TrEMBL record:
Natural source organism: Panicum virgatum (Blackwell switchgrass)
The keyword Transferase is annotated on this UniProt entry: yes
The EC number(s) this enzyme carries: 2.6.1.1
PANTHER family cross-referenced by the UniProt entry: ASPARTATE AMINOTRANSFERASE (PTHR11879), ASPARTATE AMINOTRANSFERASE, CYTOPLASMIC (PTHR11879:SF46)
Any one Gene Ontology molecular-function term assigned to this protein's record: L-aspartate:2-oxoglutarate aminotransferase activity
Domain Aminotransferase class I/classII large: 83-414
Further facts: In eukaryotes there are cytoplasmic, mitochondrial and chloroplastic isozymes.
Pfam families reported in the protein's UniProt record: Aminotran_1_2
Stated family: Belongs to the class-I pyridoxal-phosphate-dependent aminotransferase family.
Subunit field text: Homodimer.
Top-tier EC class: transferase
Protein name in UniProt: Aspartate aminotransferase
Keyword annotations from UniProtKB, A to Z: Aminotransferase, Pyridoxal phosphate, Transferase
Lineage: Eukaryota, Viridiplantae, Streptophyta, Embryophyta, Tracheophyta
Catalytic reaction list: L-aspartate + 2-oxoglutarate = oxaloacetate + L-glutamate
Amino acid sequence: MASAALAVASPAASAVAARSKVLGGGKNQGRNGCRVGITRKSFGHVMMALAVDVSRFEGVPMAPPDPILGVSEAFKADKNDLKLNLGVGAYRTEELQPYVLNVVKKAENLMLEKGENKEYLPIEGLAAFNKATAELLLGADNPVIKQGLVATLQSLSGTGSLRLAAAFIQRYFPEAKVLISSPTWGNHKNIFNDARVPWSEYRYYDPKTVGLDFEGMIADIEAAPEGSFVLLHGCAHNPTGIDPTPEQWEKIADVIQEKKHMPFFDVAYQGFASGSLDEDAFSVRLFVKRGMEVFVAQSYSKNLGLYAERVGAINVVCSAPEVADRVKSQLKRLARPMYSNPPIHGARIVANVVGDPTMFGEWKQEMEQMAGRIKNVRQKLYDSLSAKDKSGKDWSFILRQIGMFSYTGLNKAQVKLFLLVHMAHAIQLPIAH
């Protein structure tokens, strides 16, 4: 940014101004961001005074808008009453409003009744939350929990948990590469780029079948350098909605184990995909049951609707208790200069809900309702498309996919036409076929 103040009392002022840019500011020359000035006098009169500020940030370019959050900004700016926000994956009511779970309101009221304070948490977070989140993920009776093999740190939702793990990988596995599905959640690549962790893609989506390219996925994981980290979506793959079958998960585990890769799960939808906490944790528990060391990032943004609370965790299942202790100590060391310690409000909500049998039951019911409603929306979309589309296209993939996201298999031109037709029907305009 540059600012200038200019007072002119002579036609020669423009020439002086030009010279001031060349001559600089005398003893202040060479200082970045300083004020540079030249004053000339003629016959006792001030001819010109010039002051210029040069910002230290002149070399900082404008960043492009985030491709996901940018859609939400465009949505807010749009004045059309028929608009729908298809950007950020957030659950909405039929009235298009954010849904606050009743059990969350009860947990918050309980916190107010207890009069709990806002003291700093330890670096690793709230102990009750860490216990609850590991048990939800792995099962309360899982031997790895009882044997002390799990290092758990509360972190800043799924993104913060992934970023913390990426920093750990960069520091202690500097030669390792991360394999990421193609496509994947838009922020995955940003996270590993920012942590300076190299990554490559493995095949995942098959446009011919609008399903999983399982053979391509297996081939790419097999071809990766031994000891790579393989980023896997625990359930409700974002953005395709396509998950491996239990049998396919077994084969994926076989290959990862044979190649001595490290499985790294991103679990953002446990309980929110199928409506069952246990069913949605199948993939993670399968790998852990095989005795594999595993990274798992968790988020409670979707299943408890705690989007803005930024509550999640990074879990590392290790081969021995002393290994888990060392891993946890280094995760804490990384977290300290990043954000020091995590926020308490959302963590207490989770701990209260999971720790109280009544509220825990109510939460599971609400998750089943949300997941059921999403399935119902899928069914309605399938029924409508099947009835109206006369091309013979098989739309059954909509029902096979799961969660909040769906890949349609439509190309860009088809999507534009699809939106045009449905918008026209919504506002009752004639369509020229």
